[in-house]
């Protein structure tokens, strides 16, 4: 392979005139459109795979299982067949959370294939990574969209919904596993855990307030400018307010380390 790459590098390509800025923008726009088409196609494919699997489409065609059906009909390996199912389930959970949100009737009223194809800008790798925690992703999306809708500070248009979905997937994908829930045998340690749990719960509520003022699509730098007056008014340290906001977005207590905890 190394030799082949080297040979390819030695081949002289025909000289091309340099692109103008306008031509480069046109070429970039074409690439972006092609990438968007691919993502929409994956979304539609995922929706149809989900429906086919739910209908057990392989049985009337004489196949013994989903994987044998995919192999015989499409030449798809067992691993790839189940990866497609993972993508379909993750997208279904995300779409259900989005369409169940307030103020999203326009998305909800579209046909199923078109609605499922709403471009969230998510890669297959990201969807596969969160497929086993799609319920957590859906819960985050539902909560954050409700917070935005109730705040009245941001219209729930497609770019906003897309930003919320992408952030929720990113947060769940990078969150560490939950700590064990077994209570410690030491009563003092159990009491300390209870105090920490109560503090985390109250901080989560503060974070939800911060999200109403500085929605999840804002980066920390922009959120700090928006939240500084609020934190000063309620007597809260800005760093703690930002940490609470990150905790409300991710559910990851590590966001509180060094500030609240």
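-> sequence recovered:
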């Amino acid at each position: 392979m190394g030799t082949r790459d080297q040979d390819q590098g030695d081949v002289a390509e025909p000289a091309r005139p340099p692109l103008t800025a306008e031509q480069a923008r046109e070429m970039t726009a074409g690439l972006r459109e092609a990438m968007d088409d691919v993502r929409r196609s994956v979304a539609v494919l995922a929706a149809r795979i989900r429906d086919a699997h739910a209908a057990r489409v392989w049985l009337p065609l004489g196949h013994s299982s989903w994987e044998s059906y995919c192999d015989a009909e499409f030449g798809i390996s067992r691993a790839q067949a189940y990866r497609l199912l993972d993508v379909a389930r993750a997208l279904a959970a995300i779409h259900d959370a989005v369409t169940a949100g307030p103020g999203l009737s326009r998305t909800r009223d579209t046909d199923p294939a078109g609605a499922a194809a709403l471009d969230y800008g998510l890669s297959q790798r990201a969807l596969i990574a969160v497929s086993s925690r799609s319920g957590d992703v859906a819960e985050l999306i539902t909560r954050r969209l409700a917070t935005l809708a109730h705040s009245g500070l941001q219209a729930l248009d497609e770019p906003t919904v897309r930003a919320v979905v992408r952030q929720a997937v990113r947060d769940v994908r990078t969150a560490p596993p939950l700590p064990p829930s077994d209570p410690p045998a030491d009563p003092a340690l159990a009491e300390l855990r209870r105090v920490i749990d109560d503090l985390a719960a109250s901080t989560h509520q503060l974070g939800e307030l911060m999200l109403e003022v500085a929605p999840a699509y804002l980066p920390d730098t922009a959120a700090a400018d928006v939240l500084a007056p609020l934190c000063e008014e309620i007597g809260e340290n800005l760093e703690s307010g930002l940490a609470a906001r990150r905790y409300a977005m991710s559910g990851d207590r590590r966001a509180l380390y060094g500030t609240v905890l």
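Residues 21-54 form the longest helix (34 residues).
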